[in-house]
Write a structure and sequence with these properties.
The protein is an all-alpha fold. The chain is built from twelve helices and two strands, in the order ααααααααααααββ.
Length: about 325
C-alpha cells in the first residue's frame, strides 16, 4: 500500500506549481507601481477628467490625454525652433483638438469640440474681409451671407466697416477658443505657440495690421483668457498691438501683464509705449522697474522667447534679449 505524500513534500510541490504565477503578479505589480510614480512626476501633463458629479474636486493625476497634449506642444516648440512654422502650427492644433476631445469625453465641456471648430471657421471666414486697397470696400453683411459664423447674422449696423467686422470675428474666435479650452494650463501653452507662429509670419510680412497679425492677437488673447497669468502671452500680445499702432490697447495689456507676470521685457516695452506717447515720467518709472526686476530675477526662471520693442523703431522686435 502506497503511503501518501508527507506534508513537506506536498508544500514543496505546491510552491513549485504556483511560483510562476506569484512572480508574474509581483512583476506586473511592480510595473504598475513604477508607472504610477512616473506619472506623479509629470504634473504639467494634467488634463481635468472630473465629471459633472465631481466638477468641484481638483484632479491632480495626469491622464493619457494630458501626456499626448504635452507631446504635441513639445513637438510644436521643436518645429518652431527650426523655423518650421507649418509643422509647428500642425502640432499646436493637434494639441488643442486632443484637449477638446478629452474635455468632451470627461463630460466637463460637452461642446468643447464644437466651440473649437467654430473658432477655426471664424478665422477662415475672416479672410474674406481682407481685400486689396485698390478694391472698393464691400458691405460686410453681404460678404457674411455665406458664412457659418453667427457674428453678423443679427441686426444690421449702418456704416459697419470691414475693419469693425474683422474685430468682431476675432473676438468671437477668441471667445470660442477659450470656451473650448476652459482653464487648462496646457491649452494656454498651445494657444501661445500658435500666436508665436503667426506673430513671426506677421514680422516677416512687415505689414502693420495684416491677417497674420490679427491671427496672432486672437491666439494670444485666447491664451490670456485661459490663463490670465501666462508668463509670455501678455507681453507678446502687447508687442503685436504696439506694432500695429494700437498704443492704447498695448498700454493696457502691458500694464496687466506687468501685474500678473512681471518680467524685464514687459516693463521695457511698457516704457517704450509711454515714451512714444510722450509720457516721459511714466517711461522713466517703467524703465526703473526693468532694472529692479532684472536684479531680483533668479537665473533660469525668466521665460524665453520674450519680445523687446526698439524705442527708436517700434516696428523692430528683438527676441531672447534686449535690443
Amino acid at each position: 500500500m502506497n503511503r501518501p505524500f508527507s506534508r513537506p513534500v506536498a508544500m514543496l510541490a505546491l510552491w513549485v506549481l504556483c511560483s510562476p504565477f506569484v512572480e508574474a503578479q509581483t512583476h506586473y505589480g511592480a510595473e504598475a507601481r513604477d508607472l504610477r510614480q512616473a506619472l506623479r512626476r509629470l504634473p504639467t501633463t494634467r488634463v481635468r477628467t472630473a465629471d459633472r458629479r465631481s466638477a468641484g474636486r481638483s484632479v491632480n493625476q495626469p491622464t493619457v490625454a494630458g501626456i499626448r497634449v504635452r507631446q504635441h506642444i513639445v513637438a510644436g516648440r521643436r518645429h518652431a525652433a527650426r523655423s518650421a512654422s507649418d509643422a509647428a502650427r500642425t502640432s499646436y492644433l493637434a494639441a488643442l483638438r486632443e484637449l477638446a476631445a478629452a474635455r468632451v469625453h470627461a463630460q466637463v465641456a460637452p461642446l468643447a469640440t464644437k466651440s473649437l471648430a467654430a473658432s477655426f471657421t471664424a478665422l477662415r471666414e475672416v479672410r474674406d474681409f481682407y481685400a486689396p486697397a485698390s478694391v472698393i470696400e464691400l458691405d460686410p453683411y453681404a460678404m457674411a451671407v455665406t458664412h457659418q459664423s453667427p457674428v453678423l447674422k443679427g441686426d444690421r449696423e449702418v456704416g459697419l466697416s470691414s475693419h469693425a467686422a474683422i474685430v468682431r470675428y476675432a473676438a468671437f474666435a477668441s471667445g470660442q477658443l477659450a470656451t473650448a479650452c476652459g482653464h487648462e494650463p496646457l491649452a494656454a501653452d498651445a494657444l501661445h505657440g500658435l500666436g508665436q507662429v503667426y506673430a513671426a509670419r506677421a514680422t516677416r510680412e512687415q505689414i502693420p495690421d495684416s491677417l497674420m497679425s490679427q491671427f496672432a492677437k486672437v491666439f494670444f488673447s485666447a491664451a490670456l483668457r485661459v490663463n490670465p497669468k501666462h508668463p509670455r502671452s501678455g507681453n507678446e500680445l502687447g508687442v503685436v498691438l504696439a506694432r500695429s499702432g494700437a498704443w492704447e490697447q498695448a498700454l493696457v495689456v502691458f500694464r496687466q501683464s506687468a501685474v500678473n507676470a512681471p518680467h524685464a521685457a514687459t516693463w521695457h516695452n511698457l516704457a517704450v509705449v509711454h515714451q512714444l506717447r510722450g509720457e516721459r515720467e511714466m517711461a522713466v518709472l517703467a524703465q526703473g522697474e526693468v532694472s529692479r526686476v532684472s536684479q531680483i530675477a533668479v537665473a533660469g526662471v525668466a521665460p524665453r522667447h520674450l519680445s523687446w520693442l526698439d524705442a527708436n523703431d517700434p516696428g523692430h522686435v528683438m527676441i531672447h534679449g534686449r535690443p
